[in-house]
From TrEMBL:
Signal peptide: none annotated. GO terms for molecular function: carboxylic ester hydrolase activity. This is Acetylxylan esterase. Keywords: Hydrolase, Serine esterase, Signal. Residues 106-348 form the 4-O-methyl-glucuronoyl methylesterase-like domain.
Amino acid sequence: MQYLKSFAFFFFVILIKGHAQNAFQANYDESKVPPYTLPDVLKTTGNVAVKSKVMWEKIRRPEIIKLFEENVYGQMPKSYERLTYSIKNENAGAMAGKATLKEVLIEVVNNNKPVKINLVLFVPNKQKKPVPVFVLINNRGKNNTDPTRAEKSDFWPAEMVIDSGYAIAAFHVSDLAPDDTAKYVDGVLQLYPEQLTANNGMRAIGAWAWGASRVLDYFEKDAAIDAKKVVVVGHSRGGKASLWAAAGDQRFAMCVTNCSGNTGAALSRRRFGETVGRINTVFPHWFTKNYKKFNNNEDSLPVDQHMLIAAIAPRPLYATNASKDLWADPKGTFLSLKNAEKVYALFGLKSNLNSDPPAINQPIINSQLGYHIREGEHNLTTFDWSNFIKFANAHLKK
């Protein structure tokens, strides 16, 4: 009898788990996208039209950053007690002599507590001047950015980037905030405990973006790096963080967001693929407490993701999707870029995006807002990186 009771309980648990997993039904039908109206990116909260780049920079852009801080990503702490850098390992003969490897420890102290960011950096040798750098916010295994190069991954094709004349770097999200509903507090949030009790307090995504800025602080001290040409790159949840990092820190010269989907580059109001309610339920540690108010209530959001794209203007931005990754809403991502064009236009920058998304594997490079849909799954590949390099060539080597 006890065996039967145990079996019945086990079956009940499996049934409940299965029900919870299947309770959310994603919409993948364009005909079922509800009517929606996006917040006007060029109207202030006081309903005043923004007609110049000065008005944008002085009034509207700060408003938008504040709205995202308050409602989505949380506050971004600006101060700390101490910031130090140390080279833990250096090899001038890496990659068969083509590059110099630096393994850098970036240590930030606040409230007498430290957080340690481990940066892997390769710089091409035989360069006559400081070089631009791609820095990846790595949300996958650390083996993808193996400094020994015994293991190589298309997720971070360091050799290809070095051969193109760029430096390439990466840090892991777990150094800032482990991607876990309980352990995310073990990192940056130990330095800023007040964030945990604030309704607009920073959480994991904000912590990763904060970490990207501390890496940029280091680049400003490294004579081999052109710190005015730093490209922040992220995939999926890392792509949400790369957008927030670039929007909040204007020192980043260029942003790449790969398959970032909901609360990344895709419009929330479309309710296509992943939704605000779904992301806040499965990943409650990513965004502010305030963001939960918009679960199944996207139309009440005072922002949408086109405004985050616009906050990066006039700097170049490259967004991607994959053909089989409808969860990340390729069309919604493209529409975000289209709805940010008017802000780039304030700076006299023309977008070359067509009215509809491009065909698969047909990247749009010669545009301040670049975009492609790659054939395949939710991933970061050498095809993606090859186009990031082309986009950087078009915009950072002018």
